[in-house]
Amino acid sequence: MKKKVNGIALSTSEKVIEIISYIVMGLFALCAILPIMHVVSKSFSSANAVTAGAVIFWPVNIQFETMSYVLRETTFLPALKNTVIVTGLGTLISMVVTITTAYPLSKPGFKGRKVFIMLYIISMVFFGGMIPAYMVVRTLGIIDTYAALILPFFIVHFNMFVVKNYFEGLPESVEESARIDGASDLRILVSIVCPMSKPVLATVAMLYAVNYWNNYFHAMMYTNSTKMQTLQVFIYNTVNNTQTLVERLVIGNYSNVSIDGVIAAVVVLSLIPIVALYPFVQRYMIAGITIGSVKG
Amino acid sequence: MNIVASKKPSTKSLKKFGTYMKDHYLLYIMLLPGLFFLFVYKFLPLYGITIAFKDYSIFAGNNPIDAIAKSEWVGFAHFQRLFRSSAFLKVLANTLIINGYKIIFLFPIPIICAIMLNEIRHRTYKKLAQTAIYVPYFFSWVVVFGIFYSLLGTYGIINNFMASLGIERISFFSDTRVFRGLLVFTEGWKEIGWNTVIYLAAITSIDPTLYEAARVDGASKMRQIWHVTIPGLMPTIVLMLILKVGYILDTGFEQILVFYNSTVYDVADVIQTYVYRMGLGQSDFSLGTALGLFNSVVAFILIVGANAVSKKLLNRSIW
Q1: Looking at the structure, do residues A69 and A161 belong to the same domain, yes or no?
Q2: Facing A128 at nearest CB: one of B45, B146, B192
Q3: Is A42 an interface residue toward B (CB < 8 Å)?
Q4: How, if at all, do strands B72-73 and B54-55 pair?
Q5: Quick check: is A228 in a domain?
Q6: Running along chain A, 296 residues long, what does each successive block of 10 average in pLDDT?
Q7: Closest residue in chain A to residue B41, using alpha carbons only
Q8: Contact assessment for residue A8 and residue B215, using Cβ atoms and an 8 Å cutoff
Q9: Is the pTM for the entire model greater than 0.80?
Q10: A117 and A21 housed in the same domain
């Protein structure tokens, strides 16, 4: 909310509070941004500058060899492809399942509603555990496939409840008139309820996409071949296997590429989609908080 | 709107269940994909819990689930083994200490930030600061690890700076004295901004006439914050704290899995990382499942307890 300055002159204490706020929040903002600037700078700086520790928050002796090394000589692109597929397909599937689950459960007159909601609550508060879940995935025979990376987030309970609560708040009258015209439940959902719920659906889609994109643990647990490596696994391995990287750089004669530069470049490349979508993310995430806090 | 909504089921309820099913069979079909998921990924693993009570051999059957039925029952043998091991107390303590530190040191910061952000009247400055602070929330733990590795590595910018001042370099990622601090700090870096935005959203929903009234009564800015803003934020603060305590066993797992290494197991190994290493790393599936079950039961009690507290204090269920 915008606060209007009222006619009364600001007292000294008010000024002090405001000045402190400007300074402290400025520092917090810098704390969030400067580390990112640092890795971006490193990824575009010469190997000598990086190893000498000359790179702070701005590139020194700008070069693009590190970026081109990561794109050409590592498995970055195949890993990116895997992550894009899992995120795209996963978000689509999760949204369909979330919407089709939330809609019946949002109908006050839906017979059996309480039982189904109870099933979701029970499975939300009691978890079988990591190993039993792994055994199920292995039994299904989907280890090392995209399916294993989508299954864990097929439907996230919290997201489903947010959508359900939103649906409950929609005016009943619009649906009622469509029903009189003979529209089926599915038709009403697709052509009336969903268009009316665009903000919440965008927010939830975002939450799913971020989940899929950032997921490391399930990828590590449920995949094992290099072919199925996702972006997060690739980044983790790059940061942790510097020895292999050193050998590759020496053998390939990449004198202007440093290990730290490669690590920075990998991180920076993986952030591009998130930064590119940030304005969109920001708009809907804030809307999402408001929606989420209206009804828990 | 409410009247219409409550009328509909009452006329519907006159019809028989069969007629309802016939009219709305599509609604039941819609539920199927979600129920399929619940069955496969949430309820089938509940059967898998019996692994904790058996001498489980993954190759005893046609598949890992079938193998459960074909493995011998051993009662609580694995639990005895677990509770007698020194590792159990260590991982339990680490879980509580690390998450306890996170609550003590990080919980109040976003509340203060939100209040400060709200005091900033320059709209562009406020917007920029707000946008900047929660960028890291969208980064994965692996990326946060990569960034901090770059900053805090032995020859990273921070160590170079300290060396230039004549201070000894610190190996942040393998020094048991600083590793927990690193976990708390990076958690703060990733999450504070986002939590600030949540509190800020709660502040903007406080009735502006309350501030008006306080000003008319001559309340200073500090008093307005103390008597209007903080009470207005109280429900959100309490809810967030309840959630934090309720999920104390489950949070931080992925962060630690990414950040830790064998040199810091003593201070950083938590329940879930231990389950992972024992169960899937060393194939001691039964011990891992037993510890996982212990974790699930305690977590269940905490979360149901948290919900009861939330209902009592805030009249609101957390789900």
Answers
A1: no
A2: B45
A3: yes
A4: antiparallel
A5: no
A6: 48 85 96 96 93 91 94 94 96 97 93 93 90 95 96 93 90 84 90 90 90 95 95 95 86 88 95 84 70 46
A7: A133
A8: yes
A9: yes
A10: no
